[in-house]
């Protein structure tokens, strides 16, 4: 089978994960080209991954007629324009979340996606491809929990990364903690319930990082939400988990409940010594969702080859972003926001 030739823009921390996966773990795909404004990132692609076509410009890269698809892992503010440019070039598109930072721009991109039904577009909500979440989704769909009544979602980055985020926040905008972090959990709630959000009420603080107040950022954000079908959803996002990278989802139904990742376990090892009983924990998101990142790109390539549309659409990105922006608006106004 002919390999899909992929061009990737962005080779930062997550970009290098994707690039390495394409080269080493994604079947029927070739990392044909990369684009980055950082010389060291281009050197990494050329020297360590063997990429032959390295560009300083995204526009130059997508001008290469040999490309079949692009993988977009650039800063969030570039996504809307780069997705549109790729589609206009006739390329299939995989983009990391979010589609954009402003709703009007996202709506324009969704319209552009709809104009190209022959092109696969997939958004990087990788948790849908994690084995544990897939297991839970099957249980929910089979009715094992009965009717979902409530969901609780935690997403807390390790404290080891807090200082670097503070430095980032002093020079750049993340879009806010709900758009930057809770958007994955928002997508999971929509995915598991099949329902849309009705209202949100948010709170937040910077007790662990007072410096973030000057940057108009939050270290901890929480939100209580109601969905159109009556489901209650609670979200907690943070940047200061002392024990590692903590992602946890609880689904409560009329007939039972499921808890996914209640401890961020690194492996199945348990250490018994003078310190008591110790379980190693995951330290960062590339480790926790290692196989999900591989699975989502394999699914993208398979969709191209099988001429099938992705199950994660532009509308999923739009709806999740709408909710995240409403959460931020609720925090700032101290009001319940209706969607």
TrEMBL record:
GO biological process: NADPH regeneration
InterPro entries the UniProt entry points to: Gfo/Idh/MocA-like_OxRdtase_N, GFO_IDH_MocA-like_dom, NAD(P)-bd_dom_sf
Residues covered by the GFO/IDH/MocA-like oxidoreductase domain: 133-259
MF terms (GO), sorted A to Z: inositol 2-dehydrogenase (NAD+) activity; nucleotide binding
Assigned EC number: 1.1.1.18
Family annotation (Gene3D superfamilies): Dihydrodipicolinate Reductase, domain 2, NAD(P)-binding Rossmann-like Domain
Keywords in alphabetical order: Oxidoreductase
Pfam families: GFO_IDH_MocA, GFO_IDH_MocA_C3
Domain Gfo/Idh/MocA-like oxidoreductase N-terminal span(s) in chain numbering: 4-120
A GO CC term assigned to this protein in UniProt: cytoplasm
Family (UniProt): Belongs to the Gfo/Idh/MocA family.
Protein name (database record): Lipopolysaccharide biosynthesis protein
Species of the source: Staphylococcus arlettae
Organism lineage: Bacteria, Bacillati, Bacillota, Bacilli, Bacillales
């Amino acid at each position: 089978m002919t390999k899909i030739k992929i061009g990737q823009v962005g080779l930062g921390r997550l970009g290098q994960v994707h690039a390495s996966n394409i080269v080493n773990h994604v079947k029927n795909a070739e990392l044909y080209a990369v684009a980055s404004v950082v010389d060291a990132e281009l050197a990494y692609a050329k020297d360590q991954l063997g990429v032959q076509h390295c560009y300083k410009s995204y526009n130059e890269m997508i001008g290469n007629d040999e490309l079949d698809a692009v993988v977009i892992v650039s800063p969030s503010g570039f996504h809307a324009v780069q997705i549109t440019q790729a589609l206009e070039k006739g390329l299939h598109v995989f983009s990391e979340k979010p589609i954009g930072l402003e709703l009007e721009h996202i709506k324009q991109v969704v319209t552009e996606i709809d104009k190209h039904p022959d092109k696969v577009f997939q958004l990087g909500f990788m948790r849908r491809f994690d084995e544990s979440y897939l297991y839970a989704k099957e249980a929910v769909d089979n009715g094992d929990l009965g009717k979902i009544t409530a969901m609780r979602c935690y997403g807390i980055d390790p404290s080891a990364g807090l200082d670097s985020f503070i430095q980032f926040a002093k020079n750049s905008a993340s879009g806010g903690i709900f758009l930057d972090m809770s958007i994955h959990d928002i997508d999971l709630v929509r995915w598991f319930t099949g329902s849309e959000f009705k209202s949100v009420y948010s709170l937040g603080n910077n007790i662990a990082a007072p410096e973030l107040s000057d940057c108009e950022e939050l270290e901890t954000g929480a939100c209580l939400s109601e969905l159109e079908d009556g489901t209650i959803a609670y979200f907690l996002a943070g940047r200061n988990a002392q024990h590692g990278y903590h992602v946890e989802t609880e689904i409560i139904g009329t007939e039972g409940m499921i808890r996914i990742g209640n401890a961020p376990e690194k492996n199945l090892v348990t250490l018994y010594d003078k310190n008591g009983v110790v379980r190693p924990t995951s330290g960062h998101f590339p480790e926790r969702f290692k196989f999900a990142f591989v699975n989502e790109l394999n699914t993208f390539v398979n969709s191209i080859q099988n001429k099938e549309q992705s199950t994660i659409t532009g509308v999923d990105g739009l709806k999740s972003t709408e909710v995240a922006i409403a959460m931020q608006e609720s925090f700032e106004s101290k009001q319940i926001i209706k969607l």
